Amino acid sequence: MSIHLSQKIYVAGHRGMVGSAIVRTLKEKGYENIITRTHAELDLINQAAVQAFFETEKPDQVYLAAAKVGGIYANNTFPAEFIYQNLMMESNVIHQAFVSGVKKLLFLGSSCIYPKLAPQPMAEDALLTGLLESTNEPYAVAKIAGIKLCESYNRQYGASHGIDYRSVMPTNLYGPGDNYHPENSHVIPALIRRFHEAKESKLPTVTIWGTGTPRREFLYVHDMAAASVFVMDLDKSIYDQQTEPMCSHINVGYGADVTIAELANAVGAAVGYQGNIDFDPTKPDGTPRKWMDSSRLNRLGWNPLVNLNDGLQSAYQEFLQRTTK
């Protein structure tokens, strides 16, 4: 095994949807020295515990995929937990990575970092140019802080200590390991669950909130994991050609969006629901469009492989496996 593949890699958040996909991708690429810790084994909010972990393990690389996440209901109900826990995890891991001599780190953010009314598609330089969506502002602020932590450590210690901390901002993700909770899930897992239950109950109609006209972009989680490893492994000179010191993060998107109506029909087809799909225009639509500009990443040589229909089929099969256990 090459020295490159033998590096010790710590994946924080390996039980989450993205973290578990990153572990699978690293193993597929031949990386064997991967270390993980469950929350019970290592509480990333505990500064002393994180310090002890890094002093003992001394990883060469870190993928920071750990986060407190949830849908609109959870963000609205627990704003203090969302900002505090995410800020603490990011601060502890990034700082202790630096202190222990980690040269390469990848921080995973979210598309919610961009202003609510950002021009579409949302480019990296739209960051901090307008007001955030109020429903998830605490979470977004924490994710912005993670980006700025990486930028700040690079600016102050990059040249003197040889560190290279990068950030990737995914669009809406779905796939194996997703959260199907009836109140805390995002749109695709929520629709998969609703259509599955409607099929099982032989309901004639499923009604979706809103007009169905808003447009959203979705990326299969295995593509996100592949992009994460791709960005981490890029030569610094190549990466720096597409970034700037004060705008160093990279968007990761599918490159196209769909209406909520098109998404609902695609999910219904993947699940095998045969009934009608209606929309309730008296309910809120939310932001008219959320679409990421991923041209920086595309210029670096990465493009997604899994289309929406194939990804939904795979996601539904994994949902079935989890619910029938």
From TrEMBL:
Keywords, sorted A to Z: Isomerase, Multifunctional enzyme, NADP, Oxidoreductase
Keyword Isomerase listed: yes
Enzyme class at the top of the EC tree: oxidoreductase
Any one of the GO BP annotations: 'de novo' GDP-L-fucose biosynthetic process
Active-site annotation: 139 (proton donor/acceptor)
Residues marked Important for catalytic activity (site): 110, 112
Superkingdom of origin organism: Bacteria
Binding site for substrate: 194, 209, 216, 285
Amino-acid positions noted as binding NADP(+) in the UniProt annotation, renumbered to this chain: 13-19, 108-111, 143, 170-173, 186
Molecular function terms, GO-annotated: GDP-L-fucose synthase activity; isomerase activity; NADP+ binding
Pathway note: Nucleotide-sugar biosynthesis; GDP-L-fucose biosynthesis via de novo pathway; GDP-L-fucose from GDP-alpha-D-mannose: step 2/2
Catalytic activity: GDP-beta-L-fucose + NADP(+) = GDP-4-dehydro-alpha-D-rhamnose + NADPH + H(+)
Pfam family, one: Epimerase
Domain called NAD-dependent epimerase/dehydratase: residue spans: 9-237
EC numbers for this chain: 1.1.1.271
Keyword Transcription: no
HAMAP family: GDP_fucose_synth (MF_00956)
Functional note: Catalyzes the two-step NADP-dependent conversion of GDP-4-dehydro-6-deoxy-D-mannose to GDP-fucose, involving an epimerase and a reductase reaction.
Family, as annotated: Belongs to the NAD(P)-dependent epimerase/dehydratase family. Fucose synthase subfamily.
Name the record gives this protein: GDP-L-fucose synthase
Provenance organism: Polynucleobacter asymbioticus (strain DSM 18221 / CIP 109841 / QLW-P1DMWA-1)
Name of encoding gene: fcl
